[in-house]
Amino acid sequence: MDVMQHVTEYLRKRPAELKKLKEGGGRKVVAYLAGDYVPAELIYAAGAVPVGLIHGGDPEPVEAAHRAILRYLCPFARAQFGYWVLKEQKYYELFDLMVAPISCQHLRRVADLYSVYTELPVFRLGIPQPYDGEHGVNYFKEGLVLLKQRLEGLTGNEVTDKKLNEAIGLYNRIRGLLREISELRKSPRPPITTRDFIRLNHAAHLAAPEFVVEMLEGLYRELSQQEGPKSQAPRLLISGPNIAMGDYKVLDVIEESGGRIVAEDIAEGVLFYWENVAVDEDPLGALATRHIGKRPNCAFIRPSLKRHIEFIRGLARDFKVDGIVWYQLRFCETWDMESYFCAEELKKLAEPIPMLKLDSEYDISDRGQLRTRVETFVETLREGRV
Amino acid sequence: MYGELLETCGYTSKEIDKELPRVKRALDKAGLTEADAKRAQDRLVRYFQCGELKGMRLLVGSWFKEFVDLMLSGEEHDIRIYCELPFLTPPLIAAAKLARPDIHTAYESFYLFFVLGAFFGRVERLIEAGENFCLPPGVAHCACNQLKMGVRRVNFLPRASLVVSTGLYCDEAPKADELLEYYFGERVAYINRCQDDEPGGPLIQERPLMYTRENIDRCRRTMSEVIGREITDDHLMQAIMCSEELSTAIEEITELRVKADPQPLRIVPYQLLVYGNLMSVNLDRHDEKMEMVRVLHGELQQMVKRGEGVIEKGTPKVVISVGTPLASPDYGMMIEDAGLNICCLESYGSGGALIDTGERRRQISAMDPCTILAAVYLTMPLVSNFRVRIECITNAYRKANLDGVLMIPHYSCRVLGNDSMMVKDGVKKELGNIPLLVLEGDYFDPRYYTAEQARTRVESFAEMVRSERRVAA
Predict the structure, then answer these.
(1) Reading across the β-sheet that carries A235-239, which strands appear in turn?
(2) What angle in degrees, to the nearest 10, is found between the helix axes of B451-472 and B329-337?
(3) Cβ distance A57 to A244 under 8 Å?
């Protein structure tokens, strides 16, 4: 697909472009940690360049982080610091402010590591527990007010409601297009693989939003006229805390083993595009409602089990899924606990959905073991379908 | 044999006559035999100084009584409110019992870790039951959560009417409580907070304080609903005052230990004393506990006056962060036998057990009880943030004129384990190249990190501390 090559090429040049924007254009770069809790539109409305810190999948940054942290933190969190230690990934060095959503202890610790070992400033955005309820949404909104003030101080630009609503409109367009492309995968012959779809999501966190809109519009026009290859491969949903940019091992193993992923329940996918933000007289309130009040649950939220399983069931139904691959990161305690519950609940359905649980520490030696387990799972599903 | 165990637990003859049938029933329910009782009695003498100190006999007796009540709570009470680790403000639960005295309130996991674990050495089977159920090994799940799942899985205890769950700084514990609700139908009230405070910034700020306060008040309302009585501000204040009274009494023993040389009270019994405040979830025996602290304090003062101790005079003094493994009393003793006097815990550097500096105390005293509890949580040294922990250890080191720092991070704790390298680097930055050892460990599960595994490293560290001390002299 030419578009994917175009995206790859664009992202290759993006760090240099960001450097130029900073040094030549005086723009500030504001990075945010993953999980879809930080509204990039707020950063954009302040005239700064939002950049998602979403890389992972390599063992080296994980290892590099061990100089400052024990290994019992999820590999994604360790990698977020390890990339800074290794100085090989430019996104982790060129930002002027990091916004860290304090969603779980793992991301909280990333914020701490940057505070202790780097000179890079960190803003901590509190995520209330549980999401629902006016109390939590209000707390989050107050956090956004503090973030807005911090961004205004950093950039010297006032974030007006008008600017913020315009930014929301732009990001709504991105989310809307991603959702439309995503839903093409409901077809028996999806015109895009989930691996490519997740890469589009990754691009949306790194590229200029105007570029992303243009690219997605073109891609949607192209894909909506196409059908993918005919296939008897079992249709799978992948669920987990996140799939980092570069962590494609599990996706590759599933495809190589004869499975076909048609939907994802992850932060760099459905959680990002599922809900749009209302264009409102109170844009910060609308952002708070979208990012906290309306979003699907994550495992670290308590209580979350019932709401999460309902969401997974809905996705499984809509995307006509045969099985679920639960992909968690090693030492992510809440996802591990929730996996047990989900597997049980899926078994109880009138038409039970089989689930395979996998975990990874971004270690290259994982691959063989993953492959054996996935092949067996896919084979079982295939036999079930026959 | 049971009678001898109860004597070692400070029961009077009259109490033994009265309580023996209950104790037998409780131990039977817990699957503990006469041989276990003998073993516990030996351990209490060996590790908890119950042979020589009446105060320690009364202290272990307090824990033991709570354990017996817990085991029999299904027969004796219709409403049971349990709190689970890492719950840290006992007055909230105690207030429910003040509002309705016929209910049972318990700090379930702590009673099990200390009594079943440290006293009897028999907690592993419950941890394993949790491991085999839904918190498998290999993911670094905390044993305190594995324990509570295991307890339910094997029907070790009656179901709670309400579990008060603490999500103030840990994600795993409230998640485990959610599983309790799902699998075992126990109602759960969550107390959460957002940990978005800036490390190094003020610990009490209006916005997070009010958010936490609302969580605590919501829990109070849920408890009121469960017990069918209103839990008033007066109940809460009374409970807070009792807890403070006990804390203050314990602090006096802390001060005595820090200064004493030779050391009259080992680290393991001292930790049992410090955590004794957590028994304030039930104020029925408050006077008894105050008497116990008074007796122990008096005995220790006498020992100091006579120049007696259980650790050789002149042994180098260290602070421990956060503590020695709770269910493995041999671990603490091994460190002391290697030649280190663990004269204080990390929290010593905060200047108080619950509410620390005078300024904070003044700030807090002007608040309503739910806000006081919220402020207590937010200012609690161990769980606020890593900068506070660095400050505490540094303060303790300077204030007590110590010779080294020993850190045993609870490996599976994403809060108190994972910041250990940052804390270590921060302490070194403040204090220079002092003797400091980090030993990965497990506070609750005696199976993975044993005293014998650590002995060689601790002995080398002790030698280094002694050598540094000689050089400094």
Answers:
(1) A260-265, A235-239, A323-329, A355-360
(2) 30
(3) yes
Question: B421 vs A68: CB contact, 8 Å cut-off?
Answer: yes
Residue A117 token pair: 């070992």
Per-residue pLDDT band for A1 (boundaries 50, 70, 90) equals low
- Cβ-Cβ contacts under 8 Å, A37 against chain B: none
**Is residue B247 within 8 Å of B380, Cβ to Cβ?**
no
- pLDDT level of residue B377 (50, 70, 90 thresholds): confident
Q: What is the pLDDT at residue B416?
A: 86
B140 lies within 8 A of chain A by CB: yes
Interface confidence (ipTM) of the complex: 0.93
The set of long-range contacts for A7-16, using a CB threshold of 8 Å and a minimum separation of 24, is A7/A199, A7/A200, A7/A203, A7/A207, A7/A215, A10/A203, A10/A207, A10/A211, A10/A215, A11/A203, A11/A206, A11/A207, A14/A206, A14/A207, A15/A90, A15/A91, A15/A94, A16/A90
> Which residues does residue A325 pair with via DSSP β-bridges, in sequence order?
A238, A356
Residues 6+ apart with CB under 8 A from B362: none
Stretch 43-82 of chain A: residues touching chain B, C-beta under 8 Å: 67-70, 72-73
Please give, rounded to a whole number of angstroms, the shortest distance from the CA of B416 to a CA of chain A: 11
- What pLDDT score does B360 carry? 57
B418 and A142 within 8 Å at the Cβ level: the answer is no
pLDDT single digits (tens) A291-346: 988 888 888 888 889 889 999 999 999 999 999 999 999 999 999 999 998 999 99
Residue A270: band (very low, low, confident or very high) from pLDDT cuts 50, 70, 90: confident
Residues paired with residue B200 on neighbouring β-strands, in sequence order: none
How far apart, in Å, do the first and last CA atoms of chain A sit? 32
Q: Which of A70, A105, A337 sits opposite B179 (nearest CB)?
A: A337
* Least confident range of A66-70, A129-133, B211-215: A129-133
Q: A383 Cβ partners below 8 Å, 6+ apart?
A: none
Cα–Cα separations (whole angstroms), residue A94 to A28, A30, A58, A114, B196:
9, 9, 20, 13, 24
Determine the pLDDT at residue B379: 81
Portion 247-266 of B in contact with A at CB < 8 A: none
Nearest-neighbour CA in chain B from A288: distance (Å): 15
Q: Classify burial at A23, counting beta carbons within 10 Å of its beta carbon; exposed 0-12, middle 13-18, buried 19 or more.
A: exposed
Contacts of A128 in chain B (CB under 8 A): 192, 194, 211
Which of A69, A112, A334 is facing B172, going by the closest CB pair? A334
Q: Across all residues in chain B, what is the average pLDDT? A: 93
pTM: 0.95
Task: Classify the phi-psi angles of B314: left when phi > 0, otherwise alpha if psi is within -120 to 50, otherwise beta.
Answer: left
The partner residue sitting opposite A333, judged by closest CB among B139, B211, B425, is B139
Q: Where are the beta strands (DSSP E) in A64-157?
A: 97-102, 122-126
Interface of B with A in 413-472 (CB under 8 A): 414-415, 417-422, 425-426, 440
**Greatest pairwise CA separation for chain B in angstroms:** 66
R_g over Cα of chain B: 21
DSSP characters for B270-315? HHHHHGGGGGGG-GGGHHHHHHHHHHHHHHHHHHHHHT--SB-TTP
Could you tell me how many CB contacts below 8 A there are between chain A and chain B?
Answer: 129
Cβ of B194 and A73 within 8 Å?
Answer: no
- Verify cis geometry, omega within 30 degrees of 0, for the bond prior to B208: no
Mean of pLDDT values over B309-322: 96
Q: Inform me whether the C-beta atom of residue A129 falls under 8 Å from chain B C-beta atoms.
A: yes
